[in-house]
Specification:
Length: 293
């Protein structure tokens, strides 16, 4: 009985710490908060799991928010997104939570780097972390969507602190009820109509009993369209410029609009910036939050 009492006391203490972290995250601007078990990342390749970032990791805290404003979705100029993105703010909020865990709770905490490791792989999949923490479910187009907030940016921290786990959501956010109704009428959804895979697009699939089956997502094609600027384009133009023998042509390449925009997008962000949001623009999951005056 004494051991049980001690366990109950520890569980209560862990729940209190978790609630304090959650309230700090929400107060800091996060829209969602969840905790995943660090040992649950079996789907991730070796070298890209929580314990590869922090030995002895027991919990992964995930927060989501800093999504594009309602006005961003209304703008017909999609190229403004790589300069107005707010995704670095959610990473900064994770740093504050990590600081709280180490200074107040006395456990190690490491924020998952938002960039990429070798082979363009993330240090740890934020999408998998968000799914395991109950902050959303995968969509046909790739991003994890929350049933209420839809598309948002995620950040995660790995800690040796043991926290109560939330676990994955039981019902997928994608396809949304409106998508299911549209599919029953026309055999397509807003995103598959915008980017149909059978017409050189990226998305396709079949909805059966409210769930996607035969899901098709051309990731390579999508990435080639999403990252029109930022680091990949900088690398490509730099290589071509160095190989160009004509001095005047090199000058034109360096001063081109494409190269200039690539430099701007890299200056304004420390993580990947997407320039094609068209599948997310038409996504009905959080349309209620986008209808303003």
């Amino acid at each position: 009985m004494k051991g049980t009492a001690q366990t109950d006391e520890l569980d209560t203490e862990d729940s209190t710490v978790k609630e304090e972290l959650k309230q700090a995250a929400l107060k800091g601007g996060a829209l969602v908060f969840g905790v995943a078990d660090a040992s649950a990342f079996t789907a991730a390749p070796e070298g890209y799991r929580p314990t590869d970032i922090l030995p002895g990791a027991r919990s992964v805290v995930v927060i989501g928010g800093s999504k594009p404003r309602a006005g961003d979705w209304q703008s017909p100029n999609y190229q403004h997104m790589e300069l107005s993105s707010t995704n670095d703010r959610i990473t900064a909020l994770s740093m504050r939570l990590a600081h709280t865990i180490e200074r107040q709770a006395g456990y190690y905490a490491v924020v998952v780097p938002p960039g990429v490791d070798q082979g363009q792989l993330p240090f740890m999949s934020l999408a998998l972390a968000a799914e395991l923490a109950g902050c959303g479910t995968p969509s046909l187009a790739g991003p994890v969507l929350h049933p209420e907030h839809g598309f948002m940016y995620f950040s995660a921290l790995v800690t040796t602190l043991s926290l109560p786990v939330d676990g994955p959501l039981t019902h997928p956010a994608c396809p949304a009820p409106a998508c299911v109704e549209m599919y029953q009428r026309s055999g397509a959804t807003p995103c598959t109509t915008t980017c149909p895979i059978e017409d050189n697009g990226c998305l396709g699939g079949t909805i059966v009993d409210g769930r996607w089956t035969e899901r098709q997502y051309d990731r390579a094609r999508c990435m080639a369209r999403v990252y029109n600027y930022w680091v990949p384009t900088f690398q490509k133009i730099l290589t071509e410029t160095l190989d160009e023998p004509d001095n005047e042509q090199r000058r034109m390449m360096i001063n081109s609009t494409l190269f200039s925009r690539s430099l701007w997008s890299m200056t304004y962000a420390n993580i990947s910036q997407g320039q094609c949001f068209e599948c997310m623009r038409v996504c009905p999951v959080d349309q209620a939050n986008r209808q303003l005056s």
